[in-house]
Design goal:
The chain is mainly alpha-helical and 324 residues long. Helices cover 73% and strands 1% of the residues. It has a two-stranded antiparallel sheet with strand order 1-2. Keywords: Isoprene biosynthesis, Magnesium, Metal-binding, Plastid, Transferase.
């Protein structure tokens, strides 16, 4: 994430603290597990989720002095997200993530699964130690949502009957649930009123859905170098995302590629060309834009002269700008 982005500069010092804390939090007695976990955090990433938590914390607290529990929730959120990526990469057999070899390729599948489990366990331990039962309940639900999302995705591989609504529902479980819950949990830690807690939940939900749709568009339109993973990875794995689902209603020919599960050499490339020629990309962009607008509107109950609320809005617009 470019440090020139305005919202980033609002919490840059806090993010430096978070990066240092993450390295300490994933320490394990077994060197292999520690190496696997450390490998992930060294790979970097945008840290989008903790950025949202830190901005939401500062947007809901009066003196800008966020609580230790806010910082810990930001760290927990990133650990949970990272754990989900380890398991995702195993399920999808991804060779690279953020331009680096995935954990199961660096070590092996067993170590990767154990590393993911270890990170989930670590996050649960730190979550319990927050001492805020409502936040524990909300964030714990996210881990079950991940499993629900993976099962839904795995049971509909190469299934052209999947609707856009089902895709959105699955995207909530896999991506938006964590962002929504961490936003809500942040407001609860601040002891904000119910209206503010619900507003931040909706902000996180719609931002998360937009983020997933945008990722799915970029999987089609961006090169492997930019993505940090192979282009068209979702297609190859049978994950039918928004651009393809919108294209299906316009170009029935691509069902041939899907029916034979992209087994012929140029099937994936030909399918990508068909999607780009169609209105599938634009319809997906429009859908992402609708969710970004819903996210911004959700912030209306918060103080509008607050620079951190403005930062949350800028983050939403930045997310959408990734498509340009």
């Amino acid at each position: 994430m470019a440090k020139s982005v305005t919202f980033f500069s609002l919490i840059e010092a806090d993010l430096d603290i978070l990066n240092n804390n993450l390295k300490n939090m994933v320490g394990a007695k077994h060197p292999i597990l520690y190496a696997a976990a450390e490998h992930l955090f060294q790979a970097g990433g945008k840290r989008l989720r903790p950025v949202i938590v830190l901005l939401a914390a500062k947007a809901t607290i009066n003196n800008e002095q966020i609580l230790d529990s806010h910082r810990r929730l930001a760290e927990i959120t990133e650990i949970i997200h990272t754990a989900s990526l380890v398991h995702d990469d195993v399920l999808d057999d991804c060779s690279t993530r953020r331009g680096m070899k995935t954990v199961h390729n660096t070590f092996n599948v067993k170590i990767a699964i154990l590393a993911g489990d270890f990170l989930f366990a670590q996050s649960s331990w730190y979550l319990a130690n927050l001492g805020q039962l409502n936040v524990v309940k909300i964030i714990s639900k996210v881990i079950t949502d991940f499993a629900e999302g993976e099962v839904r995705q795995g049971s509909t591989h190469f299934d052209i009957s999947v609707s856009v609504d089902s895709y959105i529902e699955k995207s909530f479980y896999k991506t938006a649930s964590l962002i929504a819950a961490s936003c809500q949990g942040t407001a609860i830690l601040t002891e904000s009123n119910t209206k503010i807690c619900n507003s931040l939940y909706l902000y996180g939900k719609h931002l998360g859905l937009a983020f997933q749709i945008i990722d799915d568009v970029l999987d089609i339109t961006s090169s492997s170098t930019i993505l940090g993973k192979p282009q068209g990875a979702d297609l190859k794995n049978g994950n039918l995302t928004a651009p393809l689902l919108f294209t299906l209603s316009e170009d029935k020919k691509i069902t041939e590629f899907i029916d034979r599960e992209f087994c012929q050499k140029d099937d994936v490339n030909n399918c990508i060309k068909s999607i780009i020629k169609s209105k599938g990309i634009q319809k997906s962009k429009d859908l992402a834009s609708e969710h970004i607008q819903a996210a911004l509107t959700s912030l209306d109950p918060l103080a509008q002269n607050n620079k951190y609320v403005t930062g949350l809005k800028e983050l939403g617009l930045y997310t959408l700008a990734r498509l340009n």
